[in-house]
Amino acid sequence: MSSFGTQEDYEDGFYIQNTMFPLQTTELRINQSPMISTFIYQIDNERLFDRDEHRHKTEIDPYYLSDSDQVVLGPNLAYPFKIKRLVGQSGMSYGALGSHAITALSKGLGQAGTWMNTGEGGLSKYHLAGNVDIIFQIGPGLFGVRDKDGHFDLSAFRNLAQQDAIKAFEIKLAQGAKTRGGHMQGNKVTEEIAEIRKVEPWKTINSPNRFTNIDNPQALLNWVTELQQYGQKPVGFKIVISSVAEIESLVTTMIETNQYPDFITVDGGEGGTGATFQELEDRVGLPLFTALPHFICKVRTTRHSR
């Protein structure tokens, strides 16, 4: 097992593109209110090998997207999600990180005014500690939205959709570090984790390779549409690209059926996880900087179809 990401060196390096005529700071379309209360380090005395420093509380200018630049997910739904930050947190489960990490991330992301993805392990009280916008991830194990037999529980989904903190739902078909089902040892399934995931405590959890109700693009889009209607909040899905033909089939089905997700998350093969094997982590799924151009080329013609 590997928990800290692949060690594979996919690229030599990346470079930031410069422009000959950059914008002045006053020309940037940004919203800098309200101010963010935080702590910064103040250096008191710096020496050759060490230094003295302290933290003090201050307020800093945020960099929110302007109203005209905000990304709106699900504009035709009852509860659209307005994204005012370009960067948020991708899926990381409470069961993998623990209460302290999830609490710290929630508070930091909440202060920054951005979003937090729960990962497939369900919603914990620690995700809600920072008044942050939540994207609830639904994995093939249906943790948090399943009944005692492991089937999708519509009432549990509706209860989650009624929570103000949850702004959107993400169906996780795969993730870059774990493109197949997951495995969690029973000794890690505490009573708290079991309650959150709606499983039995102290019993090993094996997530299936895929959702039992999704075996083709049409089935995926049908379920997306159903969840949009039931929850009236944005619904998207997360994919890992290995075959350009599969993406072409997915996009074609969207056009033919006029069914679209509110967003699509493209994950690369560079990610880390505590629930798979090294060979799957390193060798299955294209790296993001290879996968993303393929994906963009295929969806470009459908961007304004909805």
Automatic annotation (TrEMBL):
What keywords are annotated for this sequence in UniProt?
Oxidoreductase
Q: Name one GO biological process term.
A: glutamate biosynthetic process
Q: Which Pfam families does the annotation name?
A: Glu_synthase
Which EC main class describes this enzyme? Answer: oxidoreductase
Going by the entry's taxonomy, the superkingdom of the source organism is recorded as Bacteria
The molecular function GO annotations come to: glutamate synthase (ferredoxin) activity
- The Glutamate synthase domain sits at 41-294
Q: EC number(s) of the enzyme?
A: 1.4.7.1
Does the record bear Coiled coil in its keywords? no
Where does the UniProt annotation place the signal sequence?
Answer: none
Tagged with keyword Oxidoreductase? yes
The entry sums up its family as follows: Belongs to the glutamate synthase family.
Recorded protein name is Glutamate synthase
What is the scientific name of the source organism? Staphylococcus gallinarum
Q: Which gene underlies this protein?
A: gltS_1
